[in-house]
Each structure stands twice: as C-alpha cells, then as structure tokens.
UniProtKB/TrEMBL annotation:
<dbReference type="InterPro" id="IPR001926">
    <property type="entry name" value="TrpB-like_PALP"/>
</dbReference>
<dbReference type="InterPro" id="IPR036052">
    <property type="entry name" value="TrpB-like_PALP_sf"/>
</dbReference>
<feature type="domain" description="Tryptophan synthase beta chain-like PALP">
    <location>
        <begin position="15"/>
        <end position="302"/>
    </location>
</feature>
<keyword id="KW-0663">Pyridoxal phosphate</keyword>
<keyword id="KW-0460">Magnesium</keyword>
<dbReference type="Pfam" id="PF00291">
    <property type="entry name" value="PALP"/>
</dbReference>
<protein>
    <submittedName>
        <fullName>Pyridoxal-phosphate dependent enzyme</fullName>
    </submittedName>
</protein>
<dbReference type="InterPro" id="IPR000634">
    <property type="entry name" value="Ser/Thr_deHydtase_PyrdxlP-BS"/>
</dbReference>
C-alpha cells in the first residue's frame, strides 16, 4: 500500500517539473448530468497527460541512485513522460511502443530525445521487451503503472483536488493498469474517506472490473477501443490491492458513449481531450453513477489525441 506521506514526498520531488493543473466547470454539462461537474485538467499537464507525475517521481529516484539508461513500455503517454524527464535529468531512454501506436505520440517521444522500438500490439508483448532492453544495457525499467513511485506520483492529483475544491462528493477516474486510480485512492481515502471514488473502463477493456468481481487479477485477451490509453491486459500486482481496498465502484462505457462525450467536450468546452479522458465524462453524462445533485470531479487524464484520428471520429 502507498501512504499519504509517500504522496507528499512525491509532490516535493516533482514540484519543479510538474504543473498544478486547473479545475474548470461547465454549466451546460452540469445541467445535462444533473450534478455539478468539475474537470481536473490533466490534459493541460506537461507532456499532455498525468503520466509525467509518476514518471518524474520514478526517474528522478533512479537517477539519484546512479541510473544512466531507462526503458519504458507505452502506448504513448507514459513513453512521452519518461522520455521528457529522462532528457531533463540527462539520461538515455528507449521507449517500446505497440506497432499500432498513434503517430503523434511517437513523434512526441522522439521530440523529447527518446529512442523508439516497436513490439507487438499488447502490453503483454512490449513489457518483457522493455525489461529485456534494460537488463541488456544495465539500465532500469520504468513501469507504466505497477510501481510504488509511479503510484505515489499519480496520487499528487488527489492532493491537488482536495486543495482546489472545498466540497467534493465524487471523483471519477479512468482505469487502465490502475496507476492513476490507485494513486488517487491512496491520497483521498486516507485524508477524506467520505469522498466516493468511481473508476471507469471501456466495455471492451474491463479487466479491472472483472478482477474485482472475481477477487483476483484477471487477464483479458487483446482488445480494441478508441480509448487506446486504457488497453491494458490486466491490473497490476501493486495497483489491484489498492483498488480492492478502497474503490467504491467501477462502471463501464461503450465506444459510442466515449465518442459522444469526446465531441461534447470539444463542442461545449472547447477542450481537446483523449478518448481515455472522455470515459469519465461519458460515465457521468450517461448516468452510470446513479447520483444527483452532487459535486463530481471528472479526471481528464490526457489530451494527446492525434488530429487525423479525431477527424476519423467525426467522419463516423
């Protein structure tokens, strides 16, 4: 488990790199949802997603311990974050990405001076390759989610929400491997346990929900979803026990619901977010939470959406 003290230590370590992202509101979307909606804008974070928080905490830790080379396995956002912070602290980074990774995310990794290697289409394929590269080059593998330093870094979002809003009833968080939600759970439930934390997964990538129902980690087969940042095969061994201990509920959203939420956010709030971010909005707008007249925070996890991909959504 991750203590609140570790999250405060993470915030101190990453404060010179990571932004405190704003929270904004939408009257229209609040009216549609029957709740007062707030949006935690991690899509405006450095490198375009929340991933920079955990990556910075972990990479700075290993750099202080003498690491000169790191690897990561990522569909994009974690890779960008690792490449960015590695470049900042002066160590080399190789990012193993899936063969179908979004081109804009690959270009961003390269812009941060990270080397690219492609491997398969699932996390089950690219994770072992990234670890192998680290071992062969006397480097350190930086996990995308299943690591105490990564989780503590992501948990700093929870601290910010508590400080930015006086009254919060529910926080809605997208779930991939579980690093983001387990970090937020660790921060919120130890400080203000009355706040409900509800996770959201795509219907086609519901490995954490299935695992929670079975009471043990369940792996799913390769899946497709427009929320590419949430296409993990299974929750992590570090993250899952935290989810088991603290989570209030997990809901799922369809591909159409994600797409509709993405468009609505663009049209009404003028914010470009990733489909992974839109899952939280979709859950609230489609009444998956079954609550009314509450103060709800939707975590918008990232904004690194490829313009051509966005155009294809509109064409549908």
């Amino acid at each position: 488990m991750i203590t609140v003290q570790k999250i405060f230590e993470a915030r101190d370590q990453i404060k010179d790199i990571v932004k405190e992202t704003p929270i904004f509101q939408s009257t229209l979307l609040s009216d549609l949802a029957g709740n007062k909606l707030f949006f935690k804008a991690e899509h405006l974070q450095r490198t375009g997603s929340f991933k920079i928080r955990g990556a910075t905490n972990k990479v700075m830790h290993v750099a202080k311990n003498g690491a000169t080379f790191v690897t990561a396995a990522s569909s994009g956002n974690h890779g960008q974050a690792v490449a960015y912070i590695s470049n900042k602290v002066g160590i080399k980074a190789t990012i193993v990405v899936p063969e179908d990774a979004i081109s804009s995310k690959i270009k961003a990794i390269q812009a941060y001076h990270g080397s690219i290697e492609t491997c398969g289409t699932t996390s089950a394929e690219r994770l072992p390759r990234a670890k192998q590269l680290a071992n062969e080059n006397e480097g350190v593998f930086i996990p995308p989610y299943d690591d105490p330093y990564i989780i503590a870094g992501q948990g700093t979002i929870g601290l910010e929400i508590l400080e930015q809003l006086d009254s919060v009833d529910v926080i809605v968080v997208p779930i991939g491997g579980g690093g983001l939600i387990s970090g937020i759970l660790s921060a919120i439930k130890e400080v203000k346990p009355s706040i409900q934390i509800i996770g959201v997964e795509p219907e086609t990538a519901n490995d954490t929900l299935l695992s929670l129902k079975k009471g043990e980690i369940v792996a799913i087969q390769q899946t497709k979803t427009i929320a590419d940042g949430l296409r993990t095969s299974q929750p992590g061994s570090f993250t899952f026990p935290i989810v088991q201990k603290y989570i209030d509920d997990i809901v799922t959203v369809s591909e159409q619901e994600i797409q509709d939420a993405l468009f609505l956010m663009l049209e009404r709030t003028k914010q470009i977010i990733e489909p992974s971010s839109a899952t939280t909005v979709a859950a609230v707008l489609n009444d998956k939470l079954n609550v009314r007249d509450k103060n709800i925070v939707c975590v918008l996890s990232g904004g690194n959406v490829d313009v051509r991909t966005l155009s294809s959504f509109f064409n549908r």
